[in-house]
Amino acid sequence: MSLSNLAAIDAAHHIHPFSNMKELNAKGTRIITRGEGSHIYDAAGKKYLDAFAGLWCVNIGYGRPEIANAVFNQMNELAYYNSFFGTTNPSATLLAEKIASHTEGQLNHVFFTNSGSESTDTWLRMARVYWQAKGQPEKRVVISRRNGYHGSTVAGASLGGMKHMHGQAGADVSDIVHISQPYWFADGGEMSPEEFGLKMARELEDKINEVGADKVAAFVGEPIQGAGGVIIPPATYWPEIQRICDAYGILLVTDEVICGFGRLGSWFGHQHFGVKPDLAPVAKGLSSGYLPIGAVLVSDRVADVMINEVGDFFHGFTYSGHPVAAAAALENLRIIEDEKLVERVRDDIGPYFTKAWKSLEDHDMVYSAENVGLMAGLQMAADKTTRARYKKADDLGSFVRNVCLENGLVLRATGDRMLASPPLIITEEEVDFMVKVTRMGLDAAWKVRADYL
Ligand SMILES: *Cc1c(COP(=O)(O)O)cnc(C)c1O
Predict the structure, then answer these.
(1) Does any ligand 1 atom lie closer than 6 A to the CB of residue 258?
(2) If you classify domain 31-60+342-452 with CATH, what class do you get?
(3) Mean pLDDT, to the nearest integer, of 410-433?
(4) If I label 397, which of 130, 260, 333, 439 is the partner at 20 to 30 A Cα–Cα?
Protein backbone atom coordinates (compact mmCIF):
# COMPACT_ATOMS: atom_id res chain seq x y z
CA MET A 1 0.00 0.00 0.00
CA SER A 2 1.59 3.26 -1.08
CA LEU A 3 1.58 6.38 1.06
CA SER A 4 -0.56 8.41 -1.32
CA ASN A 5 -3.08 5.55 -1.45
CA LEU A 6 -3.46 5.50 2.32
CA ALA A 7 -3.82 9.27 2.48
CA ALA A 8 -6.51 9.15 -0.20
CA ILE A 9 -8.40 6.39 1.62
CA ASP A 10 -8.12 8.36 4.85
CA ALA A 11 -9.49 11.49 3.21
CA ALA A 12 -12.39 9.50 1.77
CA HIS A 13 -13.44 7.68 4.93
CA HIS A 14 -11.84 8.85 8.16
CA ILE A 15 -13.19 11.79 10.15
CA HIS A 16 -10.49 12.87 12.63
CA PRO A 17 -11.11 14.31 16.11
CA PHE A 18 -10.48 18.03 16.68
CA SER A 19 -9.37 18.53 13.05
CA ASN A 20 -10.36 20.86 10.25
CA MET A 21 -11.22 18.06 7.84
CA LYS A 22 -11.40 20.23 4.75
CA GLU A 23 -7.83 21.42 5.25
CA LEU A 24 -6.60 18.02 6.35
CA ASN A 25 -8.08 16.19 3.37
CA ALA A 26 -6.55 18.72 1.00
CA LYS A 27 -3.13 18.47 2.61
CA GLY A 28 -3.09 14.73 3.41
CA THR A 29 -2.66 13.31 6.91
CA ARG A 30 0.69 12.29 8.38
CA ILE A 31 0.79 8.53 8.79
CA ILE A 32 2.66 7.26 11.85
CA THR A 33 3.76 3.67 11.58
CA ARG A 34 6.18 2.89 14.40
CA GLY A 35 7.34 4.03 17.83
CA GLU A 36 10.38 3.21 19.93
CA GLY A 37 11.48 4.88 23.17
CA SER A 38 10.83 8.61 22.82
CA HIS A 39 10.63 8.46 19.02
CA ILE A 40 7.98 7.91 16.40
CA TYR A 41 8.46 7.19 12.68
CA ASP A 42 6.18 8.13 9.81
CA ALA A 43 5.35 6.06 6.76
CA ALA A 44 8.17 7.70 4.79
CA GLY A 45 10.61 6.52 7.47
CA LYS A 46 11.21 9.98 8.94
CA LYS A 47 12.10 9.94 12.64
CA TYR A 48 10.67 12.42 15.19
CA LEU A 49 11.41 13.00 18.84
CA ASP A 50 7.92 12.90 20.32
CA ALA A 51 8.15 15.62 22.95
CA PHE A 52 4.41 15.34 23.43
CA ALA A 53 4.26 11.65 24.42
CA GLY A 54 1.51 10.96 21.90
CA LEU A 55 -1.20 13.04 23.55
CA TRP A 56 0.31 13.55 27.02
CA CYS A 57 0.12 9.83 27.66
CA VAL A 58 3.05 7.62 26.58
CA ASN A 59 4.85 8.04 29.90
CA ILE A 60 7.02 4.91 29.63
CA GLY A 61 7.83 5.47 25.94
CA TYR A 62 6.94 3.42 22.90
CA GLY A 63 7.56 -0.22 22.05
CA ARG A 64 7.84 -1.85 25.48
CA PRO A 65 7.64 -5.62 24.96
CA GLU A 66 6.70 -6.14 28.65
CA ILE A 67 3.32 -4.52 28.02
CA ALA A 68 2.84 -6.47 24.79
CA ASN A 69 3.54 -9.70 26.67
CA ALA A 70 1.24 -8.85 29.59
CA VAL A 71 -1.55 -8.10 27.12
CA PHE A 72 -0.85 -11.27 25.11
CA ASN A 73 -0.94 -13.43 28.22
CA GLN A 74 -4.10 -11.80 29.58
CA MET A 75 -5.92 -12.18 26.26
CA ASN A 76 -5.07 -15.87 26.15
CA GLU A 77 -6.14 -16.34 29.77
CA LEU A 78 -9.31 -14.21 29.85
CA ALA A 79 -9.97 -11.74 27.04
CA TYR A 80 -13.05 -10.20 28.59
CA TYR A 81 -15.43 -10.40 31.45
CA ASN A 82 -17.59 -7.70 33.01
CA SER A 83 -17.55 -6.45 36.57
CA PHE A 84 -21.28 -5.77 36.82
CA PHE A 85 -22.98 -8.78 38.36
CA GLY A 86 -20.94 -9.61 41.39
CA THR A 87 -17.78 -10.49 39.50
CA THR A 88 -14.31 -9.12 38.93
CA ASN A 89 -11.07 -10.31 37.33
CA PRO A 90 -7.67 -10.46 39.04
CA SER A 91 -6.08 -7.71 36.90
CA ALA A 92 -8.80 -5.16 37.65
CA THR A 93 -8.77 -5.86 41.38
CA LEU A 94 -4.99 -5.72 41.65
CA LEU A 95 -4.92 -2.55 39.59
CA ALA A 96 -7.37 -0.83 41.95
CA GLU A 97 -5.14 -1.76 44.89
CA LYS A 98 -1.99 -0.63 43.07
CA ILE A 99 -3.42 2.79 42.14
CA ALA A 100 -4.72 3.37 45.67
CA SER A 101 -1.31 2.48 47.12
CA HIS A 102 0.19 5.59 45.51
CA THR A 103 -2.32 8.08 46.96
CA GLU A 104 -1.04 8.12 50.57
CA GLY A 105 -4.45 6.99 51.80
CA GLN A 106 -6.23 9.96 50.22
CA LEU A 107 -8.02 8.05 47.45
CA ASN A 108 -8.58 4.49 48.53
CA HIS A 109 -11.23 3.39 46.03
CA VAL A 110 -11.30 3.11 42.26
CA PHE A 111 -14.12 3.11 39.69
CA PHE A 112 -12.94 2.00 36.23
CA THR A 113 -13.81 3.66 32.92
CA ASN A 114 -12.29 3.61 29.43
CA SER A 115 -11.19 7.23 29.06
CA GLY A 116 -10.77 10.58 30.71
CA SER A 117 -14.10 11.77 29.33
CA GLU A 118 -15.94 8.81 30.81
CA SER A 119 -14.21 9.54 34.09
CA THR A 120 -15.60 13.07 33.95
CA ASP A 121 -19.12 11.79 33.38
CA THR A 122 -18.62 9.30 36.19
CA TRP A 123 -17.44 11.68 38.93
CA LEU A 124 -20.03 14.29 37.93
CA ARG A 125 -22.83 11.79 38.50
CA MET A 126 -21.12 10.46 41.62
CA ALA A 127 -20.76 13.92 43.16
CA ARG A 128 -24.43 14.69 42.65
CA VAL A 129 -25.53 11.27 43.90
CA TYR A 130 -23.30 11.77 46.96
CA TRP A 131 -25.16 14.93 48.00
CA GLN A 132 -28.51 13.35 47.16
CA ALA A 133 -27.68 10.48 49.51
CA LYS A 134 -26.69 12.97 52.20
CA GLY A 135 -30.14 14.50 51.98
CA GLN A 136 -29.07 17.61 50.07
CA PRO A 137 -30.24 16.88 46.51
CA GLU A 138 -30.23 20.61 45.69
CA LYS A 139 -26.43 20.57 45.91
CA ARG A 140 -25.93 19.93 42.17
CA VAL A 141 -23.95 22.85 40.79
CA VAL A 142 -20.38 22.20 39.71
CA ILE A 143 -17.93 25.06 39.38
CA SER A 144 -15.16 24.66 36.83
CA ARG A 145 -12.86 27.03 34.97
CA ARG A 146 -12.80 28.79 31.67
CA ASN A 147 -10.18 27.27 29.35
CA GLY A 148 -10.17 24.06 31.40
CA TYR A 149 -10.37 20.72 29.60
CA HIS A 150 -12.24 17.70 30.92
CA GLY A 151 -12.95 15.67 27.78
CA SER A 152 -15.44 15.82 24.95
CA THR A 153 -18.47 13.78 25.94
CA VAL A 154 -21.49 16.02 26.56
CA ALA A 155 -20.55 16.31 30.24
CA GLY A 156 -16.88 16.82 29.40
CA ALA A 157 -17.58 19.59 26.92
CA SER A 158 -20.01 21.27 29.34
CA LEU A 159 -17.65 21.10 32.30
CA GLY A 160 -14.66 22.19 30.28
CA GLY A 161 -14.26 25.86 29.63
CA MET A 162 -13.53 25.78 25.91
CA LYS A 163 -15.64 28.39 24.10
CA HIS A 164 -15.36 26.71 20.72
CA MET A 165 -16.65 23.45 22.22
CA HIS A 166 -19.52 25.19 24.01
CA GLY A 167 -20.47 26.66 20.64
CA GLN A 168 -20.96 23.17 19.18
CA ALA A 169 -23.69 21.63 21.34
CA GLY A 170 -21.22 21.51 24.19
CA ALA A 171 -22.90 23.32 27.05
CA ASP A 172 -25.93 21.08 27.42
CA VAL A 173 -25.44 19.71 30.93
CA SER A 174 -27.28 21.86 33.46
CA ASP A 175 -25.97 23.38 36.68
CA ILE A 176 -22.41 23.98 35.58
CA VAL A 177 -20.82 27.41 35.99
CA HIS A 178 -17.33 28.68 35.21
CA ILE A 179 -14.80 30.97 36.87
CA SER A 180 -11.52 32.39 35.56
CA GLN A 181 -8.30 30.48 35.08
CA PRO A 182 -5.12 31.41 36.99
CA TYR A 183 -3.23 32.61 33.88
CA TRP A 184 -1.01 35.37 35.22
CA PHE A 185 0.75 36.30 31.96
CA ALA A 186 -2.55 37.05 30.23
CA ASP A 187 -4.68 38.40 33.05
CA GLY A 188 -2.39 39.31 35.94
CA GLY A 189 -1.86 42.93 34.94
CA GLU A 190 0.24 44.76 37.53
CA MET A 191 -0.40 42.20 40.26
CA SER A 192 2.34 39.90 41.47
CA PRO A 193 1.70 36.25 40.54
CA GLU A 194 1.11 35.50 44.25
CA GLU A 195 -1.56 38.21 44.60
CA PHE A 196 -3.11 37.13 41.33
CA GLY A 197 -3.22 33.46 42.41
CA LEU A 198 -5.19 34.43 45.53
CA LYS A 199 -7.51 36.65 43.53
CA MET A 200 -8.32 33.86 41.05
CA ALA A 201 -8.90 31.34 43.83
CA ARG A 202 -11.25 33.79 45.58
CA GLU A 203 -13.40 33.86 42.44
CA LEU A 204 -14.42 30.40 43.63
CA GLU A 205 -15.56 31.85 46.95
CA ASP A 206 -17.47 34.63 45.19
CA LYS A 207 -19.13 32.13 42.88
CA ILE A 208 -20.13 29.87 45.78
CA ASN A 209 -21.71 32.85 47.53
CA GLU A 210 -23.46 33.92 44.34
CA VAL A 211 -24.90 30.45 43.63
CA GLY A 212 -25.45 29.64 47.30
CA ALA A 213 -23.29 27.13 49.16
CA ASP A 214 -26.37 24.94 49.64
CA LYS A 215 -26.50 24.46 45.86
CA VAL A 216 -22.83 23.78 45.09
CA ALA A 217 -21.71 20.14 44.82
CA ALA A 218 -18.09 20.45 43.74
CA PHE A 219 -15.24 22.41 42.24
CA VAL A 220 -13.08 20.82 39.53
CA GLY A 221 -9.70 21.89 38.16
CA GLU A 222 -6.69 20.34 36.48
CA PRO A 223 -3.70 20.76 38.84
CA ILE A 224 -2.00 22.29 35.78
CA GLN A 225 -4.30 23.01 32.83
CA GLY A 226 -3.06 20.92 29.93
CA ALA A 227 -4.97 21.47 26.69
CA GLY A 228 -5.60 25.06 27.77
CA GLY A 229 -1.88 25.72 27.32
CA VAL A 230 0.02 24.26 30.29
CA ILE A 231 -1.12 27.07 32.57
CA ILE A 232 0.93 26.67 35.76
CA PRO A 233 -0.92 28.37 38.61
CA PRO A 234 0.87 30.71 41.05
CA ALA A 235 1.95 28.96 44.27
CA THR A 236 -0.82 30.69 46.26
CA TYR A 237 -3.64 29.29 44.12
CA TRP A 238 -4.23 25.68 45.16
CA PRO A 239 -3.88 26.14 48.94
CA GLU A 240 -6.53 28.87 48.77
CA ILE A 241 -8.81 26.65 46.66
CA GLN A 242 -8.43 23.95 49.33
CA ARG A 243 -9.27 26.41 52.11
CA ILE A 244 -12.43 27.53 50.29
CA CYS A 245 -13.64 24.00 49.51
CA ASP A 246 -13.13 23.05 53.17
CA ALA A 247 -14.79 26.20 54.49
CA TYR A 248 -17.93 25.66 52.39
CA GLY A 249 -17.93 21.87 52.55
CA ILE A 250 -17.90 21.35 48.78
CA LEU A 251 -16.16 18.45 47.08
CA LEU A 252 -12.74 19.13 45.57
CA VAL A 253 -12.08 17.31 42.29
CA THR A 254 -8.62 17.35 40.73
CA ASP A 255 -8.63 16.23 37.11
CA GLU A 256 -5.44 14.16 37.07
CA VAL A 257 -5.80 12.82 33.53
CA ILE A 258 -2.50 14.46 32.50
CA CYS A 259 -0.82 15.17 35.85
CA GLY A 260 -1.31 11.63 37.18
CA PHE A 261 1.34 8.91 37.02
CA GLY A 262 4.56 10.84 37.29
CA ARG A 263 4.44 13.75 34.90
CA LEU A 264 5.01 16.38 37.62
CA GLY A 265 7.57 14.31 39.53
CA SER A 266 4.87 13.10 41.94
CA TRP A 267 2.45 10.21 41.50
CA PHE A 268 -0.42 12.68 41.24
CA GLY A 269 -0.66 16.41 40.61
CA HIS A 270 -2.56 17.11 43.83
CA GLN A 271 0.41 15.76 45.80
CA HIS A 272 2.71 18.25 44.09
CA PHE A 273 0.41 21.13 45.04
CA GLY A 274 -0.33 19.75 48.51
CA VAL A 275 -4.13 19.48 48.24
CA LYS A 276 -6.48 16.66 49.22
CA PRO A 277 -9.12 15.92 46.59
CA ASP A 278 -12.32 14.00 47.26
CA LEU A 279 -12.45 12.69 43.69
CA ALA A 280 -9.82 12.45 40.97
CA PRO A 281 -10.39 11.31 37.38
CA VAL A 282 -7.37 9.66 35.70
CA ALA A 283 -6.63 8.08 32.29
CA LYS A 284 -3.77 8.74 29.82
CA GLY A 285 -0.62 7.78 31.79
CA LEU A 286 -2.50 5.02 33.65
CA SER A 287 -1.67 2.70 30.74
CA SER A 288 0.83 5.01 29.03
CA GLY A 289 -1.70 4.92 26.19
CA TYR A 290 -1.00 1.26 25.34
CA LEU A 291 -4.71 0.48 25.73
CA PRO A 292 -7.67 2.73 26.55
CA ILE A 293 -8.42 2.79 30.27
CA GLY A 294 -9.46 5.45 32.79
CA ALA A 295 -10.69 5.57 36.35
CA VAL A 296 -12.14 7.79 39.04
CA LEU A 297 -10.20 7.68 42.29
CA VAL A 298 -12.52 8.09 45.26
CA SER A 299 -11.77 9.21 48.83
CA ASP A 300 -13.12 7.43 51.89
CA ARG A 301 -15.41 10.43 52.51
CA VAL A 302 -17.26 9.86 49.23
CA ALA A 303 -16.85 6.08 49.09
CA ASP A 304 -18.41 5.63 52.54
CA VAL A 305 -21.58 7.34 51.34
CA MET A 306 -21.60 5.60 47.94
CA ILE A 307 -21.13 2.19 49.57
CA ASN A 308 -23.16 2.53 52.77
CA GLU A 309 -25.90 4.99 51.81
CA VAL A 310 -26.35 4.80 48.03
CA GLY A 311 -25.63 1.11 47.72
CA ASP A 312 -26.47 0.63 44.06
CA PHE A 313 -24.91 3.35 41.85
CA PHE A 314 -26.68 2.88 38.51
CA HIS A 315 -23.62 3.66 36.44
CA GLY A 316 -20.91 1.72 34.60
CA PHE A 317 -19.48 0.70 31.28
CA THR A 318 -19.37 -2.66 29.52
CA TYR A 319 -15.60 -2.38 29.63
CA SER A 320 -15.21 -1.03 33.18
CA GLY A 321 -12.28 -3.01 34.60
CA HIS A 322 -11.54 -4.65 31.23
CA PRO A 323 -9.02 -7.39 32.06
CA VAL A 324 -6.70 -6.72 29.11
CA ALA A 325 -6.61 -2.95 29.60
CA ALA A 326 -6.11 -3.53 33.33
CA ALA A 327 -3.24 -5.95 32.64
CA ALA A 328 -1.58 -3.32 30.44
CA ALA A 329 -2.03 -0.68 33.14
CA LEU A 330 -0.69 -2.96 35.88
CA GLU A 331 2.44 -3.69 33.87
CA ASN A 332 2.79 0.01 33.08
CA LEU A 333 2.67 0.89 36.79
CA ARG A 334 5.14 -1.89 37.57
CA ILE A 335 7.56 -0.33 35.06
CA ILE A 336 7.04 3.16 36.52
CA GLU A 337 7.77 1.76 40.00
CA ASP A 338 10.69 -0.51 39.10
CA GLU A 339 12.43 2.07 36.92
CA LYS A 340 11.70 4.78 39.51
CA LEU A 341 10.34 7.07 36.81
CA VAL A 342 8.51 9.34 39.27
CA GLU A 343 11.73 9.89 41.25
CA ARG A 344 13.63 10.28 37.97
CA VAL A 345 11.34 13.15 36.95
CA ARG A 346 11.55 14.75 40.40
CA ASP A 347 15.29 14.46 41.05
CA ASP A 348 17.09 13.79 37.81
CA ILE A 349 15.72 14.38 34.32
CA GLY A 350 13.16 16.92 35.59
CA PRO A 351 15.75 19.35 36.99
CA TYR A 352 17.89 18.80 33.88
CA PHE A 353 14.89 19.60 31.69
CA THR A 354 14.06 22.72 33.74
CA LYS A 355 17.52 24.14 33.15
CA ALA A 356 17.52 23.34 29.43
CA TRP A 357 13.97 24.61 28.81
CA LYS A 358 14.54 27.78 30.84
CA SER A 359 17.57 28.61 28.68
CA LEU A 360 15.08 29.50 25.94
CA GLU A 361 14.04 32.57 27.95
CA ASP A 362 17.00 34.47 26.46
CA HIS A 363 15.31 34.26 23.05
CA ASP A 364 13.72 37.43 21.69
CA MET A 365 10.45 35.62 20.96
CA VAL A 366 10.08 34.21 24.46
CA TYR A 367 8.56 35.74 27.59
CA SER A 368 8.87 32.67 29.80
CA ALA A 369 9.69 28.98 29.56
CA GLU A 370 8.19 27.23 32.58
CA ASN A 371 7.65 23.65 33.66
CA VAL A 372 6.81 21.37 36.52
CA GLY A 373 8.55 18.03 36.01
CA LEU A 374 8.02 17.09 32.39
CA MET A 375 5.02 19.29 31.70
CA ALA A 376 6.14 22.50 30.05
CA GLY A 377 4.84 25.66 28.46
CA LEU A 378 6.69 28.39 26.59
CA GLN A 379 5.04 31.79 26.34
CA MET A 380 5.82 33.93 23.31
CA ALA A 381 5.30 37.68 23.53
CA ALA A 382 5.51 40.53 21.05
CA ASP A 383 6.98 42.74 23.78
CA LYS A 384 8.87 41.18 26.65
CA THR A 385 8.33 44.09 29.05
CA THR A 386 4.69 44.99 28.45
CA ARG A 387 3.60 41.35 27.81
CA ALA A 388 1.93 42.55 24.59
CA ARG A 389 0.81 39.60 22.48
CA TYR A 390 1.00 38.67 18.84
CA LYS A 391 -2.37 39.29 17.23
CA LYS A 392 -2.22 36.20 15.03
CA ALA A 393 -1.26 33.99 17.93
CA ASP A 394 -2.75 30.75 16.55
CA ASP A 395 -0.88 31.11 13.28
CA LEU A 396 2.35 31.93 15.09
CA GLY A 397 2.15 28.84 17.27
CA SER A 398 1.42 26.68 14.24
CA PHE A 399 4.36 28.21 12.41
CA VAL A 400 6.81 27.33 15.19
CA ARG A 401 5.31 23.86 15.56
CA ASN A 402 5.67 23.21 11.83
CA VAL A 403 9.31 24.30 11.74
CA CYS A 404 9.99 21.93 14.65
CA LEU A 405 8.15 19.13 12.88
CA GLU A 406 10.21 19.60 9.71
CA ASN A 407 13.29 19.29 11.88
CA GLY A 408 12.19 16.09 13.59
CA LEU A 409 10.52 17.33 16.78
CA VAL A 410 6.87 17.01 17.82
CA LEU A 411 5.68 19.90 20.03
CA ARG A 412 2.16 21.25 20.43
CA ALA A 413 1.01 24.82 19.97
CA THR A 414 -1.89 26.49 21.79
CA GLY A 415 -2.08 30.03 20.47
CA ASP A 416 1.13 31.81 21.41
CA ARG A 417 2.21 29.04 23.79
CA MET A 418 4.36 26.06 22.82
CA LEU A 419 3.65 22.96 24.90
CA ALA A 420 5.83 19.99 25.74
CA SER A 421 5.11 16.79 27.64
CA PRO A 422 7.78 14.23 26.71
CA PRO A 423 7.91 10.58 27.80
CA LEU A 424 9.27 10.20 31.34
CA ILE A 425 12.13 8.10 29.93
CA ILE A 426 13.49 10.95 27.79
CA THR A 427 17.31 11.15 27.96
CA GLU A 428 19.50 14.21 28.49
CA GLU A 429 20.67 14.04 24.85
CA GLU A 430 17.05 14.00 23.73
CA VAL A 431 16.24 17.00 25.94
CA ASP A 432 19.18 18.83 24.37
CA PHE A 433 17.88 17.99 20.89
CA MET A 434 14.42 19.16 21.88
CA VAL A 435 15.65 22.53 23.08
CA LYS A 436 17.95 22.96 20.07
CA VAL A 437 15.13 22.35 17.58
CA THR A 438 12.67 24.50 19.56
CA ARG A 439 15.24 27.31 19.30
CA MET A 440 15.38 26.75 15.53
CA GLY A 441 11.61 27.18 15.39
CA LEU A 442 11.82 30.38 17.42
CA ASP A 443 14.67 31.71 15.24
CA ALA A 444 12.58 31.13 12.13
CA ALA A 445 9.59 32.86 13.76
CA TRP A 446 11.69 35.87 14.77
CA LYS A 447 12.56 36.50 11.10
CA VAL A 448 8.89 36.66 10.05
CA ARG A 449 7.38 38.00 13.28
CA ALA A 450 5.99 41.08 11.51
CA ASP A 451 3.49 38.77 9.79
CA TYR A 452 1.95 37.89 13.16
CA LEU A 453 1.84 41.27 14.92
C1 LIG B 1 -7.38 14.25 27.80
C2 LIG B 1 -8.08 14.78 28.98
C3 LIG B 1 -9.38 14.36 29.30
C4 LIG B 1 -10.18 13.48 28.41
O5 LIG B 1 -9.62 12.22 28.27
P6 LIG B 1 -10.06 11.30 27.02
O7 LIG B 1 -9.38 10.00 27.32
O8 LIG B 1 -9.58 11.98 25.78
O9 LIG B 1 -11.53 11.19 27.04
C10 LIG B 1 -9.93 14.83 30.48
N11 LIG B 1 -9.26 15.67 31.29
C12 LIG B 1 -8.02 16.09 31.00
C13 LIG B 1 -7.31 17.01 31.95
C14 LIG B 1 -7.40 15.69 29.82
O15 LIG B 1 -6.19 16.14 29.51
Answers:
(1) yes
(2) alpha beta
(3) 98
(4) 260
> Is 269 close to ligand 1, i.e. is its CB under 6 Å away?
no
Q: How far is CA 363 from the centre of its chain?
A: 28
Long-range contacts of 26-34 (CB under 8 A, 24+ apart): 28/4, 31/3, 31/6, 31/7, 34/63
Ligand 1: distance of its center to the CA of 235 in Å?
A: 24
Q: Is the CB of 222 under 6 A from ligand 1?
A: yes
Instruction: Give me the residue spans of the domains in the chain.
Output: 31-60+342-452, 67-338
Ligand 1 pocket mutation, candidates 55, 114, 122, 149, criterion most atoms within 8 A of CB: 149
Q: Residue 179 — very low, low, confident or very high, per pLDDT cuts 50/70/90?
A: very high
Are 103 and 267 within 8 A, CB to CB?
Answer: yes
Integer distance in angstroms from the first to the last C-alpha of the chain? 44
Confirm if 278 and 302 have CB atoms less than 8 A apart: yes
CATH topology of domain 67-338: Aspartate Aminotransferase; domain 2 (3.40.640)
Mutate to test the pocket of ligand 1, among 122, 152, 165, 257 (most ligand atoms within 8 A of CB): 257
- For the stretch 7-44, what's the b/e string if a residue is b when 16 or more beta carbons lie within 10 angstroms of its beta carbon? beebeeeeeeeeeeeeebbeeeeeeeeebebbbbeeee
Concatenate the DSSP letters of all residues of 68-121 into one string.
HHHHHHHHHH-S---SSSS---HHHHHHHHHHHHTTTTS--EEEEESSHHHHHH
- Contact (CB, 8 A) for 261 and 59: yes
Residue nearest to atom 10 of ligand 1 (CA): 150
Is the pLDDT at 1 greater than 80? The verdict is no
117 Cβ closer than 6 Å to some ligand 1 atom: yes
pLDDT digits (tens, 9 = 90+) for 78-106: 999 999 999 999 999 999 999 999 999 99
Contacts of range 87-91, beta carbons closer than 8 Å, 24 or more positions apart = 88/321, 89/321, 89/323, 89/326, 90/323, 91/323, 91/324, 91/326, 91/327, 91/330
